[in-house]
Amino acid sequence: MNVRLSDCKIGEQIEISKIEDGAIATKLIEMGLTEKLITQIVLVAPLGDPIAIDINGFILSIRKSEANHVIVKKIKS
């Protein structure tokens, strides 16, 4: 099931399916967020912004507005 990264909860494992919007996509790819990447949600701030994900031991924090452009597939553990 595909959902937006901004809708994921702490602890969920996900696989990046698609990054929408060219300008933001370039920025996110440069930070290591690439399609087919399997990662986990580490932290979601109390008001939902920012969202932190683990990229091979590196914690990447992105805004909810940026996470809204990332389509992910939840992985069943």
What does this 3D model show about the protein?
The structure is a single chain. With 77 residues, this protein is α+β, with helices and mostly antiparallel strands. The chain has one domain (2-74): SH3 type barrels (Roll). The protein is 17% helix and 42% strand. It is built from 2 helices and 6 strands. It has helices at residues 22-30, 64-67; strands spanning 2-4, 13-19, 38-44, 51-55, 58-62, 70-74. A 6-stranded antiparallel beta sheet has the order 1-6-2-3-4-5. A hairpin with a 2-residue loop joins β4 and β5 (58-62). It starts with a strand and ends with a strand. The model has no long low-confidence stretch (mean pLDDT 91).
Question: What is the structure about, briefly put?
Answer:
Helices cover 17% and strands 42% of the residues.
Give the arrangement of secondary structure elements.
Elements: E1 2-4, E2 13-19, H1 22-30, E3 38-44, E4 51-55, E5 58-62, H2 64-67, E6 70-74
Antiparallel strand pairs: 1-6, 2-3, 2-6, 3-4, 4-5
